[in-house]
From TrEMBL:
GO MF, one annotated term: serine-type D-Ala-D-Ala carboxypeptidase activity
Taxonomic path: Bacteria, Bacillati, Actinomycetota, Actinomycetes, Micrococcales
KW Ribosomal protein (keyword) present: no
Domain Peptidase S11 D-alanyl-D-alanine carboxypeptidase A N-terminal intervals: 170-357
Top-rank taxon: Bacteria
Region Disordered: start-end pairs: 1-53
Residue spans of biased composition, Low complexity class: 43-53
Designated name of the protein: D-alanyl-D-alanine carboxypeptidase
Organism: Microbacterium limosum
Transmembrane portions of the chain: 100-122
A Pfam family per the record: Peptidase_S11
């Protein structure tokens, strides 16, 4: 390296500016070194060997010899103009890593909390308990065993509770019970309303002669007034209360030209009203050919008591008729509790009685009919009738058609076991001789669990019989709880009504 090759003083560089040191730096021009003069050569010759060696070492070439060590500063490098250090180190911090890791977790937890709260509080409109009715069979009435008389024949019947029962199906003489048919046929041709009297009649000597002839034949009769008149209603009273045969003939004569015409009309009327088993040959029943089966008389009694005028008359123990006097009813049972009619009969040795009695059972009035025929005395017909009526009392008491505790339905839920719906009380109705009733239900449970405890309301069962009806509350046999939290959380589609079966 020649003197011309030695490095020049350091120029003003970017590093020098950054470090803040500009000493010894030039503006970039190069200075040329001159060779030593004579004085400098003498000074070098007078130095010691050690000094010479040191100088040699100092003057020998070295790396970066051109750098002025004294110009190197030890302070911080100066920043370029306009530069500012960052506020946060740009390397990823621990907090930033944690934030990146926790954000998804926070989102998941938040969604889980929202889902849980929604499912736990969601109303149960889409998953309400379902109620299904069960088939309910009602209990029929027990068979009836009436106290039939030892002699003669008899029948019993209760309107609306099936067909009459009879001890015999043989037709026997009706005697004066025939007059019931006469009254029905007369009123069919000349109707009367309740409170109406109908036309008034005066009587002739011929009528009074008929009265005497009736008495002579052994038939029951009442005199015709000599001066007073009798109305149609009063003649019917004498016919049904006093059993006056001559009054029967008189009433028929007001409508028909002959008894034969009346007989045809009477039998046609019987057929038109489905009163089979009855045959009429005269208005009074004096002929033994006026016959009827015991069961047919039950139907006849029902027909007669359905007419308010006849029902009013036959219930009277006695009546005062003008020009005739006091007429007493031949039916001695009218003084017995509940007896309301109908008619006695006597022919030869046979005593007959057709009776209607009302029995109060709860809020229902039950009317029973009894026909007793062929008894050997008036007292016997009354005694046998009383025995038959008494034998009907127990069978006519309400029959428990659906007992308490009967399962009538089931409550099912998507989350629990089925719960039975049962009747709380007995449901009893009036039945007779194997009669049946019909059960119907209205079932349903409350929307909230606090009203679905054991014994809470689940509807009502109604039993309808021929004459009355009864109801029993339906209750839950066990609680029907709401779904637990786990079921709610694991069945979102069902709660929201989005499941396939919803």
């Amino acid at each position: 390296m020649t003197p011309s090759d030695s490095p020049s003083p350091p120029a003003l560089t970017r590093r020098a500016l950054r470090s803040g040191s500009t000493r010894g730096a030039t503006d970039g021009s190069v200075a040329v070194a001159e060779p030593p003069g004579p004085d400098e050569a003498d000074a070098a010759a007078s130095t010691s060997p050690d000094e010479a060696a040191a100088e040699a070492a100092a003057s020998s070439p070295r790396a970066l010899a051109w750098v002025d060590e004294s110009a190197l500063g030890t302070g911080a490098a100066a920043a370029p103009q306009g530069w500012e250090p960052p506020l946060v180190e740009r390397w990823p911090s621990r907090f930033a890593w944690r934030r990146a890791a926790l954000t998804p977790l926070v989102v998941v937890v938040t969604l889980a909390l929202v889902y849980s709260a929604t499912m736990l509080l969601w109303p149960l409109h889409a998953v309400q308990p379902q109620v299904e009715a069960s088939s309910v069979t009602t209990t029929p009435a027990a068979a009836v065993s009436p106290a039939w008389p030892a002699d003669g024949s008899a029948a019993v019947g209760v309107p609306g509770l099936g067909s009459p029962l009879a001890s015999s199906g043989q037709a026997v003489p009706m005697a004066s019970i025939t007059k019931v048919v006469t009254a029905l046929v007369v009123l069919d041709g000349m109707p009367l309303g309740v409170g109406e009297s109908g036309p008034s009649y005066t009587f002739t000597s011929a009528d009074r002669a008929d009265y005497r002839a009736t008495i002579a034949s052994g038939e029951s009769a009442l005199p015709f007034p000599t001066e007073d008149a009798l109305t149609q209603y009063q003649l019917l009273e004498g016919l049904l209360i006093g059993s006056a045969g001559n009054y029967a003939d008189f009433l028929v004569a007001q409508q028909y030209p002959s008894q034969a015409a009346y007989v045809r009309a009477a039998n046609e009327w019987l057929a038109a009203h489905a009163l089979t088993g009855i045959t009429v040959v005269d208005p009074s029943g004096i002929s033994a050919r006026n016959v009827a089966t015991p069961a047919a008389l039950i139907s006849l009694g029902q027909q007669a008591m359905a007419d308010p005028v006849i029902a009013e008359i036959v219930a009277k123990p006695s009546v005062e008729l003008p020009g005739v006097g006091l007429v007493e009813n031949t039916n001695a049972l009218l003084g017995d509790p509940g007896v309301v009619g109908v008619k006695t009969g006597f022919l030869g040795r046979d005593y007959n009685l057709l009776t209607a009695r009302d029995l109060e059972i709860g809020d229902t009035t039950v009317r029973a009919f009894v026909a007793v025929l062929g008894q050997d005395s008036a007292e016997a017909r009354f005694a046998e009738t009383r025995a038959l009526l008494a034998s009907l009392d127990a069978p006519l008491q309400p029959t428990v058609a659906v007992p308490a505790g009967t399962v009538v339905g089931t409550v099912t839920t998507l989350w629990g076991d089925p719960v039975q719906l049962v009747t709380r009380d007995d449901a009893a109705v009036i039945l007779w001789n194997g009669g049946t009733s019909v059960a119907s239900m209205q079932l349903g449970v409350a929307d909230t669990a606090d009203a679905r405890e054991e014994g809470d309301a689940g509807g009502v069962l109604r039993v309808t019989g021929p004459l009355d009806a009864a109801e029993s509350p339906v209750v839950l046999a066990a609680p029907v709880a709401d779904p637990d939290p786990w079921w709610r959380l694991t069945h979102p589609l069902e709660l929201l009504g989005l499941s396939p079966g919803a």
